[in-house]
Design goal:
alpha/beta, five-stranded parallel β-sheet, 22 strands, 46% helix
Amino acid sequence: MMKKLLEKLNIIPNSTLHQKLENEEALRRQVTALFGVLSSVHGADKLVLRAGKLEALNLMRSSDLTDRVIALQRIVFENPNITERPSKEQIPEILQEVEEALADMLARRSVEAELEAKVNEKMQERHEEYLQEIRTQLIKEKTGPENAQTLKKYAKLEKLEHIRLTGSTLELVRPQALDDIVGQEKGIRSLISKLASPFPQHVIIYGPPGVGKTTAARIALKEAAQLSSTPFAADAPFVEVDGTTLRWDPRDITNPLLGSVHDPIYQGARRDLADTAIPEPKPGLVTEAHGGVLFIDEIGELDPVLQNKLLKVLEDKRVQFDSPYFDPDDPNVPKYIKKLFEEGAPADFILVGATTRDPSEINPALRSRCAEVFFEPLVPQQVEQIVEGAAARLGVSIESGVAELIARYTVEGRKAVNVLSDAYGLLKYKEGKLNRELNVLGVQDVEEVLQMGRLHPYVRRKDRERSEVGRVNGLGVVGFLGSVIEIEAVAFPAAEKGKGRLRFNDTAGSMAKDSVFNAAAVFRRVTGQDLADFDVHINAVGGGRIDGPSAGIAIFLAVYSAVTAKPVPQWIGITGEISIQGRVKPVGGIVEKIFGARQAGLTHVLVPEENAPDVPNDTTEIQVTTVNTIEDVLALVFGEQIEKVS
């Protein structure tokens, strides 16, 4: 490139310099040519200014060859301190150095010019793109993001918004005040006392399904928020969630209860955060419930690990977030994200959990942080009251016997209302078919619904006024519902004395079998007879499993009645463990068992004396008697006192 440039400027190449330029005139022409190159590089005016700054202007205009060479050196090498005058023999060598310096300068200028051209080209492209974006944005602002398709879909949504159905039946018949909740007066008073305090407590509500736990919690918050001493605001949130549906990821990628942090690539619509690789915490339900109540239905079904995480939030009243993508020193992080990572999200709420499980099945750490409230099963009269109240809210008259019929088929208020709602819907269907108004919902409508739903009576009441040999009504409990366990026994003299067989159905469970052996020992102790002299078959009707030893007395009485042929009154229900010494030991579930006996139409219940504190005060329609020994039981059941056999 330098060679071509020198050729254009009539400069003789260095390779022939010593051969052809041996006189001073040739050197002068070469110096003049080099000044011409400098002038073309810098421009004439700038060359003069440059020479002036380097104190080379006078030397450049001098007629002396040596002065001009010194001026050339100062300008090319930008050094005003060059003062040494070269000899004529040194000038060719100096000019060669100047040429090389000029060659480097020209090469650099060429590259810079090429780069500058490309930069200008890119800048022009970006400028045009920027202008196009501005034009597009202006068009969008003027016309909006709408087009024919989007406007059509919007119109369809607007049309759907104007279509309204009436509220669901369950919403209509749902209790609106605490007084509307039937059969839970004690539980409601206990619940409202926990929430109405200036220092409200976390609560777990135990009880069977469909008795109003969720509704009571919702209304109790509203009642508490009206008090002057309450910490709840008038609009305190009530966040409801089902523990059985709460699913979370152990990597904390998703956690609807506590909140989670997504990787920046998953920011969704937040493109600005995704582009800058900034993670965004997603607060969960505990933050949504801040300042109010978080109600978790079926809290006993909540994942154990998630329960432990929830306990941590209850202690700290905050949720902490963490992410390897968070950089506290990044100036692009918005303030709210930085605050969430550094301080956490507020989660100061009152936890109200509801469960149909037994308290022993709930996490002990969770129980220790919560007050416990118990809702009772509903008796038939209460279910009838619920049906009548729901019918009043529906605005329909019901025939006499409808409430009683529904109460026979369920002990759940929710299911009772569902049956009534189905019968109401059937009534309206008949009105449409007959084209006339039917003012009364009848028993026949309910029976039709019960048949279509293949429902069966919850308790099949039997003749309780008679006595039977070898048949005893034991009492059991499943969840929060008590029931009657019919235990029967038959006894025949053994074919060979002392070699009788004792049989008990295997499905009843190992503890029930232990009760059979205990009963055999007590039988011999009480009667003086060896049960091995008889073939005895004991059966739990229906093949039901008996959990625990609470059927011990009932099994003994069945065997005793079968061997002695003494009938047992069928209006009596019995619960209690029997020791081999003949003592009646305490058992659990007394309240539920008394309820189950009342449901089944029993009028008298025998319970262990040590369970006396567990017997409720309002045992209406049923008599409860405590017993301490097997002799007490025999005296009450058979009306006779049996002497102990030593």
